[in-house]
């Protein structure tokens, strides 16, 4: 489970003004030196590094022919559902049956947008009422969360409601209260394993409560479950995630669940396979809309992936190679944060055991200042507020750190700059009190 480092503020608070001023001068000297170094480092997005992408160069060597197991010529039109063997691969990833999966193009985000767009215009399966005609539409958003999820809702004009993210998933008391008392709630975003950005893994109890609540929720309600990091473990003894679909099936609420995944951070971020999963009713309804906008996905890419990754065990073997690249980077970030900030009363952060991000909470009111200071020293961070709907962090505290793309040398420089910026902003704030 992801843990948060304690935030004992005594160290910072106990420094007298003279000591604070002296430390501020020391830090400013370091900061100005970073500025003179003309750094140009980027921690804004969770992109795979070139060395990670190189792990999948074998994709180009496995497609000696283009004929799938059932005789399909993958170079031609057709196959709205995707190749059957690609659907099996998606089923392995998401823990569902192959008939509960559609395999698409490279972007699961596209499938998420299309599902919500169709629910907005036509209504979700099992209803005849479009969301846009059912009165006000609101969506629950665990925060901090994934900015692109929020942008979809903003684009459709669906109001977003913040729900606190806890160590074991969204605050379910808040979720249940909202759904029980507000018929305008149309759904909730979930990233159940290694949530973006905090790296939380939903507990069995959280998943069970989501499934039970969905059974009794209004017919228009849907759980949008983006399981983007289902196999992105940093350790062999990784935390287990309960089977989400099985939990919903147990409570008879499987029609309320829509799951998504992809190989984007497994093989090639720009040339992989995406998956949408749901009950047969959900997928039948979605395919009725798909027939309008596509004649089928890139089946050549799907065939290459099946031959390259083979099955779930093949995926896990491949992801261990990713972990060998990523774990030293996450360890490096944790070392800098712990050595320089632990016990200093200047913030708290998560220690994820997988995924692509860490979540750092500064003292209230400082996230935007820290991001601006880092930019002034040549280190780009995700803009403050990005992990909240409408880009508004009410306390201005959260910063998402993405350590995956830079090499270790660049990452070391970037985190050193970040730590100095946190210290400088925190001490300057203390001096004004």
Protein architecture, described:
The protein has 433 residues and is an alpha/beta fold. The protein folds into two domains: 10-53 and 316-431, Aspartate Aminotransferase, domain 1, CATH 3.90.1150.10; 68-311, Type I PLP-dependent aspartate aminotransferase-like (Major domain) (Aspartate Aminotransferase, domain 2), CATH 3.40.640. The chain contains 14 helices and 13 strands. Helix 8 (204-216) crosses helix 9 (244-250) and helix 12 crosses helix 14. The two termini are 37 Å apart. The model is unreliable at 1-10 (pLDDT under 50).
The ordered string of helix (H) and strand (E) elements is HHEHHEHEHEEHEHEHEEHHHEEHEEH
How many domains?
2
Separation of termini? 37 Å
CATH class membership of the largest domain: Alpha Beta
Q: Please name the CATH topology of the largest domain.
A: Aspartate Aminotransferase, domain 2
Which sequence of strands runs across the widest sheet?
2-9-8-7-6-3-4-5
Strand content: 5-15%
Radius of gyration: 23 Å
- Shape field: globular
CATH architecture of the largest domain: 3-Layer(aba) Sandwich
Structural class: alpha/beta
Residue stretches low in confidence (pLDDT < 50, at least 5 long) are 1-10
> Which bin fits the share of residues in helices?
40-55%
Give the integer mean of the pLDDT values: 94
Major beta sheet, specifics?
8 strands, mixed
């Amino acid at each position: 489970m992801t843990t948060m480092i304690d935030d004992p503020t005594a160290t910072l608070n106990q420094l007298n003004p003279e000591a604070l001023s002296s430390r501020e001068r020391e830090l400013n000297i370091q900061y100005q030196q970073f500025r003179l170094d003309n750094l140009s480092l980027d921690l804004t997005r969770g992109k795979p590094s070139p060395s990670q992408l190189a792990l999948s160069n074998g994709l180009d060597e496995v497609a000696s022919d283009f004929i799938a197991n059932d005789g399909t010529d993958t170079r031609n039109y057709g196959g709205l559902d995707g190749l059957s063997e690609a659907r099996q691969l998606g089923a392995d990833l998401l823990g569902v049956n192959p008939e509960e999966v559609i395999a698409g193009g490279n972007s699961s985000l596209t499938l998420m947008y299309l599902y919500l767009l169709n629910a907005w215009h036509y209504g979700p399966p099992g209803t005849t009422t479009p969301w846009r005609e059912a009165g006000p539409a609101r969506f629950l958003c665990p925060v901090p969360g994934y900015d692109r999820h929020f942008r979809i809702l903003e684009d459709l004009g669906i109001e977003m409601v913040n729900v606190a993210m806890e160590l074991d998933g969204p605050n379910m008391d808040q979720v249940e209260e909202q759904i029980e008392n507000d018929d305008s709630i149309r759904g909730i975003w979930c990233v159940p394993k290694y949530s973006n950005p905090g790296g939380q893994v939903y507990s069995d109890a959280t998943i069970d409560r989501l499934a039970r609540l969905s059974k009794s929720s209004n017919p228009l309600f849907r759980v949008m479950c983006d399981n983007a990091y289902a196999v992105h473990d940093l350790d062999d003894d990784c935390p287990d995630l309960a089977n989400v679909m099985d939990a919903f099936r147990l409570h008879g609420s499987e029609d309320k669940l829509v799951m998504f995944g992809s190989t984007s951070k497994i093989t090639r971020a720009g040339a992989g396979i995406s998956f949408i999963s749901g009950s047969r009713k959900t997928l039948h309804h979605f395919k009725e809309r798909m027939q309008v906008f596509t004649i089928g996905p890139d089946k050549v890419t799907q065939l290459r992936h099946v031959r390259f990754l083979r099955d779930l065990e093949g995926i896990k073997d491949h992801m261990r190679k990713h972990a060998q690249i990523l774990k030293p980077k996450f360890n490096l970030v944790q070392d800098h944060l712990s050595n320089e900030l632990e016990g200093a009363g200047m913030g708290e952060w998560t220690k994820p055991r997988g995924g692509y991000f860490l979540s750092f909470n500064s003292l209230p009111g400082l996230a935007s200042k820290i991001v601006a200071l880092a930019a002034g020293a040549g280190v780009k961070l995700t803009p403050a507020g990005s992990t909240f709907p409408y880009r508004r962090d009410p306390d201005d505290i959260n910063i998402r750190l993405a350590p995956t793309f830079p090499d270790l040398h660049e990452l070391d420089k970037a985190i050193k700059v970040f730590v100095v910026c946190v210290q400088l902003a925190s001490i300057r704030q203390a001096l004004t009190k």
